[in-house]
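job 3f2a | input accepted
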Amino acid sequence: MKKVLTYLLTLFVLGSCSHSYYIPTTANVPLLKEKNELRATLSGGGGGDISTVDFQGAYSVTNHFAVMTNFMSARGSDDDTNSSGSGNCFELGAGYFTPLEKNGVFEIYGGFGFSNQQHTYNSGGRADLAFRKIFVQPSIGLSLNSFDLAFTPGFSSVSFHKVDNQLLSTDVNFEEVDQIAKNNVSLLFEPALTIRAGWKHVKFQTQFGLARNLSHPNLEFEEFKVNVGLTFSLAERYRD
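job 3f2a | predicted structure (240 res):
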């Protein structure tokens, strides 16, 4: 029993010192149905040792065309080792949506984004990284006055155009940053499940998301994210 506890403690200590160099933004799943409809979501969550604050907004310019924007701020730290990381990500997108029967919605959005991040390590070293992102995000869902449910099998391409590795080659974290520099483009599969419940204009949202690196699965990317927040909606049909 003592050996098992020692092993688990070792895993915890090693895991708490690790850094992640990618975490997905919260999927923007507006489920719009008509022209001049507006949806905005503010949420918080994260995965592993990373916490995030996310904002999503979407607006339908016509009955089938909409634009969107996403912003995420991410932070992670370990007070015991003076190891920390922080970064921001901003995205813009546009796409097509159409109602299905009375309550269903199909939508597909594509767009681009960019991110920068800074990491400090308990050795005193640091690393600064930046990437560009292209994404395509189809969704199928149900949208009612008091409840939304949607599945989003998204894909993205992440390209690190800056990897400033200031760690010594003998540092335990040097290799994980160096591997990103050597394998700077990754194709990701990012499925998400979105659940909302509440009222016409305001709903509570919970979203569960995954990020599978199809190109380089050994890179230190965050693979799971969950968040909770509020979604606000304005639409002509809600005036009835």
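job 3f2a | The mean pLDDT is 91.
job 3f2a | closed
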